[in-house]
From TrEMBL:
Name of this chain's protein: Dephospho-CoA kinase
Role, per record: Catalyzes the phosphorylation of the 3'-hydroxyl group of dephosphocoenzyme A to form coenzyme A.
Species the sequence originates in: Pseudidiomarina insulisalsae
PANTHER family from the UniProt entry: BIFUNCTIONAL COENZYME A SYNTHASE-RELATED, DEPHOSPHO-COA KINASE-RELATED
Class in the EC hierarchy, top level: transferase
GO process terms (BP): coenzyme A biosynthetic process
Keyword vocabulary terms for this entry: ATP-binding, Coenzyme A biosynthesis, Cytoplasm, Kinase, Nucleotide-binding, Transferase
PROSITE patterns: DPCK
Amino acid sequence: MMWVLGLTGGIGSGKTTVSDLFAQHGIKVVDADVIARHIMDKGGKALSAVGERYGKEALLESGELNRAWLREKIFAEPDEKQWLNDLTHPLIREQILAALEAADSPYVILSAPLLVENNLTKYCNRVLVVDVSEETQRQRTLQRDNVSAEQVEQILRSQASREERLAAADDIINNEGKPDTLPAQVRELHEKYLGYAKDAEDVKNAKNAELKTKEDR
């Protein structure tokens, strides 16, 4: 597997904006949220299991997942959240690893809001955290997502604390300021990651050459 950067940040931190900026530099982004969303596509075994457990309430008339209903269900009932995690996490990890393996950029980004909580850091060579205060998270999420203040608090409690994320960070982007400060921060880090990835590739190639030499003797 190539050199992997783990990218994370709490809700409202601007993680997606940052990952989009890396993508503009030609870097493949494997988004765990996108993969998780498609795990529940119509016709898949995950959605079938949800329908069997909860009945028609969990589905829209089209047969697709009623995401709003399920979100409220798992936030209100921790046991149901655990059941859903046990169902989906193995499927999501399998697809994440396949996507990382298939990436064809100089390095690859694994973007996941729950990178720390779900121990996805073990697949990463380095971790970048997009950091903002919890108050900024609250304000941005309320403005962006049209959800209640109570639901925002539930989401915050379900994620790692700011301190836990920062403890896992090798690099940090501060996104409290104006959006136009982000491109320069990303560009500087991108150049650094290109160097790390090249060094890792050189080490791998040297080891492979050494093994081949031993086999040829």
